[in-house]
Write a structure and sequence with these properties.
Layout lengths: L7 H28 L6 H8 L3 H7 L3 H22 L9 H17 L3 H13 L3 H22 L6 H21 L7 H16 L2
Helix pairs in contact: 1-2, 1-4, 2-3, 4-7, 5-8, 5-9, 6-7, 7-8, 8-9
Amino acid sequence: MQRPDLNPASSIELMKKNTKTEKVLDVAFELLKSAGDHGVTMRQVASTAGMSLSNVQYYYKTKDELLKALADRYFNTCLEELKSVKPVESRATLEEDLERLLVLFLQHGIEVTEMCCVFREYWAISTRNEEISNHIDQYYKEMVKILSDKLSPAAKSEEGLTKAVSFFIPYVEGYSITANAMPNNIQSITESLIVIISDLLNH
């Protein structure tokens, strides 16, 4: 069997590109975290990264492209984590399976990571930037698909599944902002959500 030609030079260039793009994203992340949207300019990213402006623009032509790439790095992590969660098996194990899913999401509201803080910046940016708003919409649409697959074994109808997912995602996403102000603890909230979502899946 003929082996494919390997080009060591191409592999090295790809590694260099990956290293540089990751460095640019790391710098943009720190600037967004410390200075917000207005603190992230292509020139500032280049200066902080120790690169020329033209070099940064070679990888990311505009600030919007850079922000979308940075968001994707976070989105992909979140979506892969959701994909790895065991789906609901049946209505017989619904409460137990829902608890596992809900705790995963709600726990992020209590343990606010640096990236979670930066994602809040993206929500703010999306109110004045249509391109970023559309990008975030695509992320949530993908989350809807994955969560629907996880819950579908326990859904009595497509309508019930749609209602359950449409309730689930906005609540847990909003909880990441309001968690510390809620009078009930995560266990109490989880129990209430299990009742509500179970009822929706039963329709």
